[in-house]
Design brief:
The protein is of the alpha/beta class. It has helices spanning about 35-40, 45-65, 85-105, 115-125, 175-185, 190-200, 225-235, 240-255, 260, 270-295, 310-325, 335, 340-355; strands at about 5-10, 15-20, 25-35, 75-85, 110, 135-140, 145-150, 160-165, 300-305, 325-330. The protein has a five-stranded mixed β-sheet, sandwiched between helices. The longest helix is centred in the last third of the chain and has 29 residues, at about 270-295. Bound molecules: 5'-O-[(R)-(carboxyoxy)(hydroxy)phosphoryl]adenosine and zinc ion (ZN).
């Protein structure tokens, strides 16, 4: 009989539940996104996120069980995100998972959200009939994180071991996407639309060139706030962007936020600026990740988190991977962004290692991964 774990995720703005068998087979995966709620504020509002999790958690878990054709009593354990994330949001998932575990007499497994993102890659590799060789370097790149880990496994150890190589000094890459989209009046979240607009830019030269982003200290650390500010100053200093920004603000106010609706409202110069911004972010993520792989002697790179859905990033990593002889693994788009299948998958080896939580389990806003 496979081990069936219910995963619960509520660390940011997605309420998610999933059932995964033996850490590999996704029996169901339900994600209730709150994007429509946070869109009007241009970012996640923590209190609204908590309230929405509270509204969604019961139906989302119920639907995950329904789609897996299971009852609560069929489960072997419950895995829940302990952190990092928004405390008020995490507490909703944790309290619900704790209550379920107590009522059912099932084990409760605390999961680090970042380890979930790593397992999203393994879930995808398994679906494709591939296996990712360790040691690997893993880039987790989302709206809240931009961090590189070395992932290893000691012989016969049930769980993986993580060593942080570097991280962002300021903004996460996804946050930079969201902020640049906001200042250009392109809606929220910014990543998906900027990704498509960058690809739609014709050969117009960029109105500004950004060099590689620099950080003092650890040369593998990332930094994106300078780039975001450079875009801001460039746009502020040039009144020619004013009319198109206004036109897009009006379109967004009418609910017209689709790529097809916003593209005609973007000048060739704005598109070239977006392409240059994306080129810089992608080049930076790629160069530092491959440098980390070279330094640690890893022949595998894993990329996960919302920004891993970026088409140009995927191509850039695949291409460099081919020339460097490094295998690249990405989750599908659905598994790149926050979901609970990755939490249930990460809970599986911990369940076997006996890493369980008791009723004292609490949320940890900045939980380190080790
Ligand atoms: O992992 P995720 O769903 O939530 C966090 O933990 O942050 O990632 C969301 C982030 C947002 O900042 C969003 O703009 C970005 O991922 N994102 C993208 C793309 N799709 C989502 N960034 C660049 N290109 C994309 N295609
Ligand atoms: Zn995440």
């Amino acid at each position: 009989m496979p081990t069936r774990i219910l995963g619960i995720e509520s660390s940011c703005d997605e309420t998610a539940a999933a059932v995964v068998a033996d850490g590999r087979e996704i029996l169901s995966s339900i994600v209730a996104s709150q994007i429509d709620i946070h869109r009007q504020y241009g970012g996640v509002v923590p209190e609204l996120a908590s309230r929405e999790h509270l509204r969604q958690i019961v139906p989302v878990v119920r639907e995950a069980l329904h789609q897996a054709s299971l009852n609560l009593t069929d489960l072997d354990a419950i895995g829940v995100t302990q952190g990092p994330g928004l405390v008020g949001a995490l507490l909703v998932g944790i309290t619900y998972a704790k209550t379920l575990a107590q009522a059912l007499g099932k084990p409760l497994i605390p999961v680090n959200h970042l380890e979930g993102h790593v397992h999203a890659v393994f879930l995808e590799a398994h679906k494709a009939g591939k296996s990712a060789k360790l040691p690997a370097v893993c880039l987790i790149v989302s709206g809240g994180h931009t961090v590189l880990y070395e992932v290893t496994q000691e012989a016969d150890a049930p769980t993986l071991h993580y060593k942080k190589i570097s991280q962002t000094r300021d903004d996460a890459a996804g946050e930079a996407y969201d902020k640049v989209a906001k200042l250009l009046a392109l809606g929220y979240p910014g990543g998906p639309i900027l990704d498509r607009l960058a690809a739609a830019a014709n050969g117009a030269p960029p109105p500004i060139k950004f060099g590689p982003t620099k950080t003092r200290g650890n040369p593998l650390d990332f930094s994106f706030s300078g780039l975001k500010t450079a875009v801001l100053y460039h746009v502020r200093e040039r009144c020619e962007y004013g009319a198109e920004i206004l036109a897009r603000q009006e379109a967004l106010a009418r609910g017209e936020r689709k790529f097809e609706q916003l593209l005609p409202l973007c000048s060739p110069q704005a598109l070239a600026l977006i392409r240059e911004f994306q080129n810089t972010v992608v080049r930076d993520l790629r160069d530092r990740t491959f440098a980390a792989a070279e330094q640690s002697g890893a022949s595998t790179i894993l990329v996960s988190g919302g920004v891993a859905a970026n088409a140009q990033l995927r191509n850039a990593f695949e291409e460099r991977g081919k020339s460097a002889g490094i295998q690249i693994f990405f989750p599908s788009r659905a598994l790149s962004t926050d979901n609970a299948a990755m939490i249930a998958a990460a809970a599986f080896p911990r369940f076997h290692a006996g890493i369980l939580a008791d009723t004292s389990l609490n949320a940890a806003a900045s939980l380190p991964l080790s």
